[in-house]
Give the backbone structure.
Amino acid sequence: MWGVNWRWLGLAAVGLLWPALSYSTETLDPANTYAYLIGFVHYNDPGVPLLDPTNRADIRLKVALKDWGIPEERIALRQDSQAPRATIETSLADFARSIPSGGNLIVYWTGHGYRFGHEAYLLAYDSIHGQERQTGIPTAEIGDIVRKSMNGGKVLFLVDTCHAGAFRQVARGFAPDTGIAAAALTSANLGTTATLAWTFTDALIDAFRGQAWVDENGDGDITFGELTSYVDDTMRFEADELAGGGFSPDFDPNLVLSSVPKSERVSPLDGFHLGEFVQEKTARRRIGQIVGIDQNQLRLVFVDGTKGALPPTSLELPDIPNPYHVGDHLKISGNVATVLKLKLNFIFVHYDGLSPDKDEWRPIDEVAPPAAQ
C-alpha cells in the first residue's frame, strides 16, 4: 500500500508538474484576448443524452470573461443548434484568423465527448448517437484548425467533456516554430468521464473573477499553474474525477490570469492556504476544504457537508492509500479487469475480452478492495 501527498502530486495527476509557487513574469492581457465558446445541453439526435440546462455555466463563463476585461465583441458563444459540425469548423477558423498577430485565444467547450482508443471526439449539434467517430469532431482537428489559423500568440483549451484529456496531446503538439504557445486544462483525463455538474467551469470562473481561494501562495496573482492545482483538487475531492491537461514546450505555466483584490488577499497559515483540501489527523480522517483563515485556526467545510474550525496542528495533507498494483486482476461491474496503470487514487484498467477503447480510469472507491475480490 502507498499513500499520496496531494500538494506535490496534484499537478502530476494531470501531467502538469512545475514549481507551483514560482514567480510569474507575464500576464494574460484580457484586452488582447479573444474567446470562442461552445456549449451544449441538448443535441439534434434524441439518442444523445441531455445535459442539465439549469444555471448554464457557458453563459456564466462568458459574463465572467467580459467582466475580466475581454471586449464583448471578441467573445463568440455558440450553443446547441448554433453549433453543427460544419459551422464549428468554419467559424472557429474564421475567428482565429481574425485575431491580430500575437493575440491570445481561449477555446472553451462543454458537452459530450467520446473516446475510441487513444482518440477522442467532441459531439457537435448534428452528431449522431452510435456514430460518434464518424459525426463528431476529433480533438486533434480542433488543434489543427487553431494552428493553421492563428498568427502567433497563446491559446488555452479549456474543455469540460468526458475524455477531454486528449487535449493534452493537442496542446503539446504546438511546436515552438508555430509561434503559438498552447496549454490545455480539462475536466477529465483521456479514459475518464466528467461530472454532469458545472464543477470544472465554475472553477474557471473563480479564477477569472480573481477569487482568493485560487491564489495558492496568497501573493495576489492567480497563475495558470495555480488554476490547474485548484481544478485538480476540486475535481478530485468534489466530483471524484481525474482532471487532465498539458502544455507546449514554450508555454509558461506561471502565466498570470488574474489578480485578487488587495482587500481580499489571505496569507497562508503554517503552510496551509485558502481553498486547499486537508485531512483531519483524528481517527475520523475527514477531508475538508479551507474556506477561511483566522489568527490561529482554519475554517473548514468537510466533504460530508459539515463545518468546523481547527488549528493547523490538527490537520495534514490528504494521504489516501491505493491498495492496487499493476497486473492485479479485478472484477468491476461483473467484468474481469486487469490493472494497467496507477495514478493517485485511480486505477487504469483493461476489461478482458473487450477492445482497448473501453480501457478507463476508475477511482479506487468505486472498486472493491483486493481482499474482497
Remarks:
- The longest helix spans residues 224-239.
- The chain has three domains: 6-259, 266-316, 329-372.
- Helices lie at 6-9, 57-68, 85-97, 132-135, 139-149, 167-172, 199-208, 224-239.
